[in-house]
Hints:
By secondary structure, the protein is of the alpha/beta class. It has 2 domains: about 5-250, Type I PLP-dependent aspartate aminotransferase-like (Major domain) (Aspartate Aminotransferase, domain 2, 3-Layer(aba) Sandwich), CATH 3.40.640.10; about 255-385, Aspartate Aminotransferase, domain 1 (Alpha-Beta Complex). Helix content is about 35%, strand content about 15%. It is built from 14 helices and 12 strands. The protein has helices at about 5-10, 35-45, 60-70, 80-90, 110-115, 135-140, 160-170, 185, 220-235, 240-250, 255-270, 290-300, 315-325, 370-385; strands at about 75-80, 100-105, 125-130, 145-150, 175-180, 195-200, 215-220, 280, 305-310, 330, 340-345, 360-365. Strands 1-7-6-5-4-2-3 form a 7-stranded mixed beta sheet, sandwiched between helices. Helix 8 (about 185) links the parallel strand 5 and strand 6 (about 195-200). The protein is globular and about 75 Å long. It starts with a helix and ends with a helix. The structure holds pyridoxal-5'-phosphate.
Amino acid sequence: xxxxxxxxxxxxxxxxxxxxxxxxxxxxxxxxxxxxxxxxxxxxxxxxxxxxxxxxxxxxxxxxxxxxxxxxxxxxxxxxxxxxxxxxxxxxxxxxxxxxxxxxxxxxxxxxxxxxxxxxxxxxxxxxxxxxxxxxxxxxxxxxxxxxxxxxxxxxxxxxxxxxxxxxxxxxxxxxxxxxxxxxxxxxxxxxxxxxxxxxxxxxxxxxxxxxxxxxxxxxxxxxxxxxxxxxxxxxxxxxxxxxxxxxxxxxxxxxxxxxxxxxxxxxxxxxxxxxxxxxxxxxxxxxxxxxxxxxxxxxxxxxxxxxxxxxxxxxxxxxxxxxxxxxxxxxxxxxxxxxxxxxxxxxxxxxxxxxxxxxxxxxxxxxxxxxxxxxxxxxxxxxxxx
Length: 387
Ligand SMILES: *Cc1c(COP(=O)(O)O)cnc(C)c1O
């Protein structure tokens, strides 16, 4: 489907709302009917018609159509956060006694879902080094139901060979779930590679303005109906109509934002790669990335999120560098208008810098929409603070 059609027309039914160019926010919890017969027929199709907003809301429905089309899947369900979408996708595929194989060190709350939450219900997870797809095959047991991927992850950017893992899943009757937040549907099309359920934190690039927390999952109609009937309606972690409206607005500029953020990042990395204080660049589409070829094969871009390991001797120097930045904000998240830094040291207990899976001298950068020279100047002046 044409990208402009998806972003500017699909799902929008302007004649039905007085030809308003921007769709209305249907800020209504319930919808009424002319007769009991009509009520009965609409209840039978609660996933597709307005009955009660926990199930279907017209503003949210516009967003669902656009997101499914972007990922190239039959349907999409949106949630009040990326973590709600991840949990719904995973919970929908397991029961007590089942087993999951996951890439090691997925997003922190995904990790806790597997490690802590699901254990209470007798679901076990084996974590594997996903840089070799064969590790997934080796960990599969008769009771394995899900192969979970996050390619690349959003801190150190290791990849999984998505097509290879999908093939393994298909021969063992497992469902594949991929967290595609880093790439967005524009930089990595996971449905083309055969992934069954694609999950996103829409808080990041998809909304893009650091003002909404949202998530989604994309899949075929059969899986979507199953999730709608179970996790979606039961745990009820929906996105509000107003937040859906903000997301529709944010989506309109997704290609422009991604393009600017990506171009600035490539330029900045070229300026920084020879800097004496930069030990290593971690970015999927940088030639120094150990899986550069695989990244080129399955991704068409890598956006504005990367990490640097810095040549410093003490954790205090990392604090000093980050504190010296004038325009990068010290914060988590990414994908908005504003540039950010997130040092691994900020995650660690100050008495023990080995509590993170990542090296303490690693700093994650997100390059937002500011002018690239403005950002380079800021990084360079902060690096000069280091001896
Ligand atoms: C932020 C993030 C999540 C969680 O999404 P929320 O919207 O914060 O709940 C999941 N996966 C990845 C890769 C993320 O970056």
